[in-house]
Every structure is written in structure tokens, then in C-alpha cells.
Amino acid sequence: MKKHFLAILLLGSISLTAQTIAPKITIHADQGKNVINKEIYGQFAEHLGSCIYGGIWVGENSNIPNIKGYRTDVFNALKELQIPVLRWPGGCFADEYHWMDGIGPREKRAKIVNNNWGGVVEDNSFGTNEFFNLCEMLGTEPYLSGNVGSGTVEELAKWVEYITSAGDSPMARLRRQNGRENPWKLKYLGVGNESWGCGGDMTPEYYSDLYRRYAVYCREYDGNKLYKIASGASDYDYNWTETLMKNIGHRMNGVSLHYYTVKGWNGSKGSATKFDKNDYLWTMGKSLEIEDVIKKHIAIMDKYDPRNRIGLLVDEWGTWWDQEPGSKTALYQQNSLRDAFVAALSLNIFNKYTERVKMANIAQVVNVLQAMILTNETKMVLTPTYHVFNMYKAHMGATNLPIDIQSDSLSSNTRKFAAISASASKDAKGLIHVTLANIDPDKEQKITIDLANVKLSKVSGTILTAKTIDAHNTFENPNVVTPAVFKDAKIGKTGLTVTVPAKAIVSLELTPNL
Fold first, then answer.
1. Those residues with Cβ within 8 angstroms of residue 240's Cβ, 6 or more apart along the chain or in another chain
2. What are 289-310's pLDDT values in tens digits?
3. DSSP state, 78?
4. Exposure string for 119-148, b = 16+ CB within 10 A, e = fewer
5. Cα separation of 338 and 384, whole Å?
6. Closest Cα partner for 321 from 307, 308, 332?
7. 143 in helix, strand or coil?
8. Quick one: DSSP state of residue 108?
9. 493, 440, 396, 366 alpha-carbon torsion, rounded to 10°
10. Strand (E) positions, 294-348?
11. What are the residues whose beta carbons fall under 8 Å from the beta carbon of 87, sequence distance 6 or more?
12. Which of 149, 160, 414, 497 has the fewest CB neighbours in a 10 Å radius?
């Protein structure tokens, strides 16, 4: 068993014991100090499979209902989520993407072969203008992943100029030629992606020097301020973070981290829908291990950046299963209640470390890996993961409240973990939001929630669960896993009693007495 699961946590403690104990959560409502960065609820859209083409973009002339070429059903679903930030165009695709191929009249754009994902031919009908217009329509911050692996400093510098310059510069004139008079705003700029792998197979020392060079020439135009993000480590590669913190330091605003809940990179990764209880518990343990990974990367960052000026961005995370049998596009996988739990547990952890974790982007938004949405021609279905994000969105921009959790433990192989995961926050109106996940697939949890001196006048809630842990939504049956009103939260003299069924995720809104 890994020692970190028994440790006192930064914002609370989890009691793990072999015997049955009464589940209890203590919320320190008077100790909140860190605002939960809304960008933790960010999304990721890569030119991969049918994420962009057929997922987000169908074009104005499609028989699929659309708003200026964007699928109406997908657009409205994303609008409902209030997504704070969207990362594009990759992923591995980013370091082979040359942005000038994707501007100008669509019928004249160069066709390209996507060598990273299936060798499919793309017509570049979705490019810079389409991405930034989408972000503007959704009210979301664009996060641009720049080409360092196969691109040039000049190419990335000109891309930033094209997007953000309001002057009489060459790239600003080109943007105007292409129908956009005013510049867009670009805050988040990724300088490369997975530079240790598909983004160039670099050493951290070499990448550090390259980052410094690229970052110099990515200028800030006309009041636009860039938040420059270095291509960071893959899960357990702590040396990569150490080297970047030492060699780049405060030349970067943030450094990324990628962590997938995956069984391995060689051979079968397992089915998204055909699995047993042991597979489920393994997945829970693996997803929860991201907390220890985050803590170790933060410890390195604290050594070089004690003033906490550099953010940690988990800009790729989620489950990775085998591609769905019969699917025709890369990395298309179904999404079950098990995936919903990975989302819930991960978001609870990100909320907790919001002082350093400034953003997280689940992979990916439509039709790829742990997607929010699945599409098939004219049909669309919302996944269990989508519903978790919708249930959790009240945390965005709220103040994180420290919590202590006492519960039974579950185990899988060498991993042992608490049966309950939770997060709490207080919004600007004074409402307290609590998200709870009962990981136990068999046993309900009657949880006492102690809010110390806070007295409640009202509680309301939403629950996400299903008959089986492998339950999932299909185009034929889209509501197998769908939120429902939760009524098993009772206000008492000393706090709140919440009875959470087995394998259930609950969000609560608590109204204190004024």
C-alpha cells in the first residue's frame, strides 16, 4: 500500500481503517481562502478522430442543424456547461499543425494528412478563425497549443500576431483580409505539447532552451497579455519538472502535466463498457493516484517558486480505453458510470490543490477518449462525464473550503483509498456547494456533515447513479445514466445527514441561515 493514502492531506485528512466506521465529513466553512480556478473545468479539442469534423464542425451547408457551421446540439450542450477554457489544436496534432494551411477561403485551403491519428485527410475547413469565433460565441477562453516540434519561431510568432495585433502589421492585415477586422483575445499560449514524446522527443534541457527562444518572440500586442505555458511532464517524470523549473523558471507562467487513467501503452487498454468490479476498483485507485503525482510536482515547484507565481496545468487527463468496436474514427470510446467517477474524483482533487493547479483540460470534448458528448451523423448523446461537469460547475470561481473525511477504505492490488471523495466551496452569494462520490459499488453511505457553527435553512441536491457500474448512454437509450433530484439530505441540529447510495455521485447546495 502506498503511504500517501494514509497521510494527512493538505486541506484535510482521510481516515482509512479496516473496520467499519461511521462516515463523517467536516467542512471548515470559516477557513476558505483559495478561489477554485474556473479553468480547472476546462476542455480539450484535438484534430483527432471525429472530435472536430462531425463533432464540433459540420459546415454551414450541412444537413445537420448548425450555427455558422458549428453543430447546434453540441454548441448548446457546451454552452450549458459554461466551459471556461478550450485547448486546441492538440495534443500530438499541434506539433504538426501549420496554421497558415487553415486560414483564408475554405475552398482554397490546403488538404493535409493527419499522420498522428489514422492518416486521414483533413480539408482544414476548421482553422484559426473558426476556433476563435467558436470560443467567442461560447464565452470561453481559447488555449492555443503552438507548434514547436516541426514549426519555427517565426511561424508561432506570426500566429500570435495574426490573432492579437490591432495595428497595421502584416499579419493583422492578413486577418482582416480573411474577414476579421478586430483582433481576438488570446490569454493561454502553450509552447509545444508533449515535447518529451510526440512533440519532438526532446530532453528537458534541450526543450528548456527552445522554450526560452520561442517565448521571447511571442510578443504581446495592443494590450493582449499572454500566459505562456511550458510543455511539462508526463505523470511520474519528476525530473522533467525539476529541469524546467531550474532552467526556465519565471520565464513561464505555467507548466503542464499529463496524467491518464490507463492500464498501459502497449496492448489492450480494456473495454470501456465490459469490465468487472475488480477493473472498476483498479480504475478508482489509478485515478486517485493523481493526487500523489500532483503533490510531488508541486513540491518541486515550491522549491524553485516559493511565491507560487507559476501555475500547474493538468491540460490532459482522463480515462483511456480501447477504441469502441465497429467505430470508424480514432480513439472513439464509450463512457460509463465508471468514467463519471473518474471525473468526479479528479475534479475533487483539482479543487483541493487550486492554490497551485490553475487549469485542467479533460481529454476530450467530443467523440474522443473521455468525452462530454458523442455524435453519430445527426444524433447526439450526453455522457455520464458531461453530467458530472454540469453537477460540479457551481464550484467554478467559488472559494474552496477545507474538509476532513472519515470513511471506510476500499482497495485494489497495492492501492488503498477512502470510499468517499468530496469537495466543498462557498460562492459569492454565500451558498455552500458540496460534491460527494460514494465509490463503494455495493454499500450505501450514511454520511454526517458537520459545518461547525454554520446553521442551514435549506438543502437541495442532484444525484447521478445507475443500476450497474458499466451503465452508459447510447443513441438509442440516451438517459440510462442521467441526473435526478436527490432527496436524502436532512438538516439536523448538529449539521446534515446525507444517505448516498452505492456507486453514486451527489451534488448539494446548502443555504445557510442569514
1. 196, 204, 232, 233, 234
2. 999 999 999 999 999 999 999 9
3. H
4. ebebebbbbbbbbbbbbeebebbbbbbbbb
5. 9
6. 332
7. strand
8. G
9. -150
10. 311-319
11. 42, 43, 44, 45, 143, 145, 188, 190, 315, 361
12. 414
- AA letter at 213: R
Phi, psi angles (nearest 5°) of residue 93: -60, -30
Q: pLDDT tens, position by position, for the chain (514 residues)?
A: 333 322 323 333 333 334 478 999 999 999 999 999 999 999 999 999 999 999 999 999 999 999 999 999 999 999 999 999 999 999 999 999 999 999 999 999 999 998 888 888 999 999 999 999 999 999 999 999 999 999 999 999 999 999 999 999 999 999 999 999 999 999 999 999 999 999 999 999 999 999 999 999 999 999 999 999 999 999 999 999 999 999 999 999 999 999 999 999 998 999 999 999 999 999 999 999 999 999 999 999 999 999 999 999 999 999 999 999 999 899 999 999 999 999 999 999 999 999 999 999 999 999 999 999 999 999 999 999 999 999 999 999 999 999 999 999 999 988 999 999 999 999 999 999 999 999 999 999 999 999 988 999 999 999 999 999 999 999 999 999 999 999 999 998 778 999 999 999 999 999 998 7
Q: Of all residues in the chain, what percent carry a pLDDT higher than 70?
A: 96
Grid cell of 335 as nine digits: 463512457
Closest by Cα among 205, 265, 214 to 235: 265
428-460 pLDDT, tens digit each = 999 999 999 999 999 999 999 999 889 999 999
Cell for 120? 486521414
* Three-state SS at 13: strand
Q: What is the DSSP letter of 57?
A: B
pLDDT at 19 (0 to 100): 47
Tell me, what amino acid is at 225? K
Fold of 3-34+401-512: Immunoglobulin-like (2.60.40)
CA distance 53 to 45: 11
Taking the domain 38-397, which CATH number applies? 3.20.20.80
What residues act catalytically?
A: 194, 316
Cell of 508: 448539494
Residue ranges of the domains in the chain? Answer: 3-34+401-512, 38-397
Nine-digit cell string for 444: 450505501
- Apex CA 414: angle with CA 413 and CA 419, to 5°? 80
On whether the CB atoms of residues 310 and 255 are closer than 8 A, the answer is: yes
State the cell numbers at 364: 476530450
Burial call 186-196: b when 16+ CB within 10 Å, e when fewer: bbbbbbbbbbb
